[in-house]
Write a structure and sequence with these properties.
8 helices, cell membrane, four-stranded antiparallel β-sheet, binds adenosine-5'-diphosphate, alpha/beta, 25% strand, nucleotide-binding, ABC transporter ATP-binding protein
Length: 232
């Protein structure tokens, strides 16, 4: 099955007259690097919340790895969330925890024993180039380093989907490029589906092979990044 399949998905927030997403039909192929691009208000955050399970569609269906997400029980929901790694714009690191403590957190919540989760987190920190920073605190890191911690945390539960939500929007261009290189490297090494949600064309160009364009809650275009976002 596809990694994600939106089938005529509609979502309108309570009290709003205009839908946040309208009749959205979109397939994200397993193992792809797919960009979702759109201006402010296009529906990107809503799409992220549907994928991460924070919202459910009002109409239509969303299938994750072929499973209808509205039909999952609580255990199924938890499992699905562990299989989706989220990377945020503002990193969402806990200031009182060390780098290692931030990366182990998802495993702690899953009840994994300390030694096991620390070993696993250290492996991930190694892969993002931060092995020597395990005992530091987020405040002691640069923006790019914080995002590497965010990526390690997103991958620590072994997800098959990595969802980057404006993950480079708070970073300067050079740091952004480094993070996009890391995401694409991890995608191929770990055979992940990488979904990059952004308002920045350069980000989609640099890191994706397929792109969907949203505007005011609707899918307006979809296809290979090279043809759709060809440089004039
Ligand atoms: P973005 O464009 O990055 O989503 P926004 O400033 O539009 O940023 O939204 C910030 C937060 O406020 C998001 O969680 C979004 O869902 C929420 N939000 C956006 N529009 C509304 C609204 N009309 N009413 C309530 N919350 C909103
Ligand atoms: P984007 O992330 O592309 O900026 P959003 O998904 O945040 O788009 O917003 C899509 C539409 O839904 C906008 O019109 C926004 O105002 C509205 N919206 C988003 N979140 C909320 C919310 N929590 N409550 C009400 N309206 C919202």
């Amino acid at each position: 099955p596809a990694a994600l399949q939106f089938e005529s998905v509609g979502k309108t927030y309570p009290g709003q007259s205009v839908p946040a997403l309208s009749d959205l039909t979109l397939t994200v192929a397993r193992g792809s690097r797919t960009g979702i691009i759109g201006r402010s208000g296009a529906g990107k955050s809503t799409l992220v919340r549907l994928i991460s399970g924070l919202e459910t569609p009002d109409s239509g269906r969303l299938l994750v790895q072929g499973q209808d997400v509205t039909r999952l029980d609580r255990a199924g929901q938890r499992q699905r969330q562990a299989r989706t790694g989220l990377v945020f714009q503002h990193f969402n690191l806990l200031a009182q925890r060390t780098v290692l403590g931030n990366v182990t957190l998802p495993l702690e919540l899953a009840g994994q024993p300390r030694q096991q989760r620390e070993q696993r987190a250290l492996e991930l920190l190694e892969q993002v180039g931060l092995a020597d920073f395990a005992r530091r605190y987020p405040a002691q890191l640069s923006g790019g380093q914080k995002q590497r911690v965010g990526i390690a945390r997103a991958l620590v539960t072994g997800p098959d989907l990595l969802l980057a939500d404006e993950a480079t929007s708070a970073l300067d261009p050079e740091t952004s490029a480094g993070i996009l290189d890391l995401l694409t490297r991890l995608q191929s090494e770990r055979d992940l589906t990488l979904v990059i949600v952004t308002h920045q064309m350069e980000v989609v160009r640099a890191a994706t092979t397929h792109v969907a364009v949203l505007d005011r809650g609707r899918l307006v275009e979809e296809g290979p990044t090279r043809t759709l976002l060809a440089q004039p």
